[in-house]
Amino acid sequence: IPEINTQEHHAMTFATAFVSDAQYNRNIPFKTSPEAVRLYRLYNHWMMRTATYFFIFLNLSLALFEEPAVYPLPFLATSVLEVLCLLVFLGRLTHFAKVTLHNVFWKDTKNICIMVAILLSLTDLAVYGVLRLYGVGSIRWSRIVRPVFLINFAESRQIRRAFRSIRNTLPEITYVFLLFTFSLLMFSLMALKLFGERNLQTAEGLPYFRNYLEIVFDLYVLVTTANSPDVMMPAFDFSSWYALFFIAFVIINTYIFMSLFLAVVYNNYKKHLKNEIRKLAYMKRRKMVEAFNLLKEEEGEQFVVREARWKQLVKLVAPDTSSSHRELLLRISDDEQKGFVDKKSFVQLADLLNIQVVTLRIRRHPLARWAPALYGSTPSRLLRRAVRHRAFVWTYDAIILINAIFIALDEESPYISYAEWVFLALYIIEILLKVYTYEPREFFGKTQFWNWFDTLIIIAALTATILNATLKSTMKYNSQQILDIVFILRVLRLIRIVDSIQRFQVIMNTLINIVPTMLTFGGLTLVVYCVFAIIGMELFHGKIQYFPANSNVPHALECGNPALKDSLFARGRYCKNNFNDFASSFIVLMELTVVNQWHDILGMWIQPAKLYFIAFHIVMVIIIVNIFVSFILEAFFVEYSLEKSEVETAIEQKIQELGMGVQEDELQQEQLLDNMESAEHELEGDGGTKPQSKGLVFKIASKRYRTVDALLQRMFEAEIPLEDEGPSFEEILNLSPSSAVPRSLSSESAA
């Protein structure tokens, strides 16, 4: 019997790991020994992941404190911190090696990259330290590999997916880029022949279009429209017909080729994104099947998972889930209450756990207990009904708009001052009416951001108004600036008006849904910026210096570089746009990403150096920004077209069947309490009656908190039959874009 219990415990541990991986879309092949599974669960603990990210960003931020430094620290201090980070990375990698299969670990390119990066960093640090002791200057070339840690640890699978999208898109982009380059070179040659022999000059008195490489660069800048119409004016002044040349160039290269870049990037991004999502969907299905096989028992002619084991599994996978929530999920999985869950229902468990179900509880208002006759009277019920009505919200939205207009008016007018007192009184009445209508503990619940925001703003406005009036009457001192800040914060409530308009909700939902992926593209941008910033510091450090406007230092007006005399760069006072430290390099790269006036920033560099900036423009603006735009397009398409999933529908149907459901408009948002244990509490209304005999009500949480990746994955999962177990783990990892289609769809196509 002890041996059987041990086997059951091990099976439950493995199944928990499989279901947890399916829930969070992890595809790490781990060892099946009990010790390895425990280490694997520890590896995926949120504290371990948070610590890893902390040391990754600490390692990246060391560039702020190393020479050339924004805030210089001794070399010993930065060296100790870097060694500490590398030891943490080595420990994390060792931990990963303990839980994964030996052959899988050594075949995984990202593990090799991490080990090579650690070795290179330690070697470079030791060599740099020794040379420093002997007073020999050298370059910290290994700093360029620091972003490798951000990309290649298992926690950064979203960033790796983005890089894979870029890698897979490059072949198609290359063909378009070659055509674009050919067009640019042809137009440059035509410009040289048209304008080179006419002795034209720019507005600065420089030769116009006489050097072929300069023409190529100027026309490349024209593609970004940064130097338009300046680059055209000398030719246009000579003859109006020459404007046709530049118009043709802009139409072909700016509008057609740049649109082609976006089209190619979007098409390939969409194709490879769907391939990634298909792999995730198949991997999740396979892991759920493996978990079922570990826990299954024979029941008649089928295999099932008993109710007790199912409950134990759910409690281990989602320990924070309330007992009432678990019972609801069981009633959905075991619809006929047979005491077991079949395979078809079991494989949906990860989806059930990923759908946020909100537990609602209506507390009895304190006034209903202290003064039931008054609180339950007809005038009181009418007042509370009016506060709950949508017209009450619309009325205060209109008041906020009117208040915003008054804030913009002349603050010296006494009528404006009196009006602010009126608005303040109206806001105080609003809060008092809501607290009277809704139970106070629910109204100020931990999830009720807007209630807290409104109340704190009103209290701050009341305090500041009284303080300002007191100071003005006693000390003749008017602190209107304090009130201005408070009233501006009041205007921020306009966001609620936007959110309340139905037509805007799709846009708001999409903006909220893309926030997690924006962090992914933020990480992608950070990697590119770090690499180019470090290269830029090594290439251009000290070439430009910044001096205050009243400085008497020689060549201060030329940014410390005589070669910049009378240049647009010096005349524009761009001296702070330099690569003298890590922060300044980031700012310059941000300006280059925007591309406005970027040719002025580049104007000081010789031709070979310009290749650095053009390379950054191609990587960042043409490729990464277009991929981000592609993601936004896909996000909006999904948001507009996607309906509720079958799993969500099943949950809602079961909630209504059990008599424990609530419609969207039956309860105000102020009455929602997330993840609340309500089993011991009765659900009471205003007058102490029990509106639900079960003592609980549930509803599906708002869909605005789902990520776009999850929505896309759900679209593909809908195409996979529930009885389809999917390919094996090895087959899933080797799926190609053309082969990653559901079996049922493939068979239908063949038929």
What is the element layout, followed by pairings?
Layout (H helix, E strand, L loop, with lengths): L1 H23 L9 H10 L2 H16 L13 H25 L2 H6 L1 H25 L13 H6 L4 H39 L16 H12 L9 H6 L4 H53 L1 E3 L2 E5 H11 L5 H11 L6 E3 H4 L2 H6 L2 E4 L5 H5 L1 H4 L2 H11 L1 H19 L5 H24 L2 H4 L5 H27 L4 H12 L2 H7 L1 H12 L1 H26 L27 H4 L10 H13 L3 H5 L4 H35 L4 H12 L39 E4 L7 H10 L11 H5 L9 H8 L1
Antiparallel strand pairs: 1-2, 2-3, 4-5
Helix pairs in contact: 1-2, 1-11, 1-12, 2-4, 3-4, 4-6, 8-9, 8-11, 8-26, 11-30, 11-32, 13-31, 18-20, 19-20, 19-23, 20-22, 22-23, 25-30, 26-28, 26-30, 28-30
Characterize the structure shown:
The protein is built from 34 helices and 5 strands. The chain is mostly helical. Among the domains are: about 30-155; about 165-275, Helix Hairpins (Orthogonal Bundle), CATH 1.10.287; about 370-500, Four Helix Bundle (Hemerythrin (Met), subunit A), CATH 1.20.120; about 510-545 and about 580-640, Orthogonal Bundle (Helix Hairpins), CATH 1.10.287. The chain has a 3-stranded antiparallel β-sheet. Strands 4-5 form a two-stranded antiparallel sheet. Strand 1 (about 295-300) and strand 2 form a beta hairpin. The protein is globular and about 90 Å long. Mean pLDDT is about 80; it is low at about 660-695 and about 735-750.
